[in-house]
Amino acid sequence: MQFYLPIAEMPVDPFVIMTMGAAVGFLSGMFGVGGGFLMTPLLIFYGIPPAIAVGTETTQIVASSVSGVTAHLKRKTVDFQMGGFLVLGGSVGSFIGVMIFRALSATGQIDLMISLSYVIFLGAIGGLMLLESTRALIRARDTRPRPRKRRSPTWLAAMPFAMRFRSSQLYISPLAPIMFGFFGGLMAAIMGVGGGFIMVPVMLYILNMPTNVVVGTSLFQIVFVTALTTILHAAANQTVDIALGLLLMVGGVIGAQLGARAGIKLRAEHLRALLALIVLAVCARLLIGLALPPSSPFTVHGVS
């Protein structure tokens, strides 16, 4: 059975799309990440135009993040003050990112830009994750107690306009979360990702936020930034295919529930190592696609 996507202007098998959504949802539930950085490349591999894949995937991220942040609101593990500054920076970043996306679309370079961004970004993140998880596995064999030392960078302490964030127990400049939020919004607009797998480490190891409020605050800002990104993409670029988004959501919800149960049975170090290998595999597939010549090359001749 074929299902026609009105914006992508192509027929798809709805069961394949829902299976892809379920697979990424399973990984999202298992690893605690949004999954946009995996879903967008998979849609491209399936044949969905990259611009449509980026614009549509943000709809699934919004839905999954709303579900996640609701649970954290009940537990009161969301720093609204910190989240507000992250949303402020992310909103500016998403607006600029959508404008860059529109400009590249007009020149016909957006597909190449998306693929190159994923190759560079996933390669760097996957490599760092694999290195960190390998070190964690090695440290796990050493039973000697080790004191944990977490120091904020000197440049963070030197930033002006410092203020108190009571829920996060921090006294830092709001310029820092605005800056990181801007980067997250830029990624959401250009790459179709929520950015949680970047923002969470930033909150933990750079901003030094308490672990109990990190995930909830990250999901809080993702909801608003990706929702804004979806609206901007739909209005400025017409790249949001709601039919495709609904199919992804159905599969993602089912997969996330199964993944959350499976993740409980694995050690954190093993989970991070497995996720790193998956990220590097997707990066390699994108790199091969860029290196190979097109199956149907063509040339454009000028009219004299």
From TrEMBL:
Organism, as annotated: Hyphococcus lacteus
Membrane-spanning parts: 15-38, 83-104, 110-131, 178-206, 213-236, 242-260, 272-292
Keywords, in A-Z order: Cell membrane, Membrane, Transmembrane, Transmembrane helix
Membrane topology listed for this record: Multi-pass membrane protein
Lineage, broadest ranks: Bacteria, Pseudomonadati, Pseudomonadota, Alphaproteobacteria, Parvularculales
Compartments, as annotated in UniProt: Cell membrane; Membrane
Family listed: Belongs to the 4-toluene sulfonate uptake permease (TSUP) (TC 2.A.102) family.
Protein name: Probable membrane transporter protein
Statement: the UniProt record of this protein carries the keyword Iron-sulfur: no
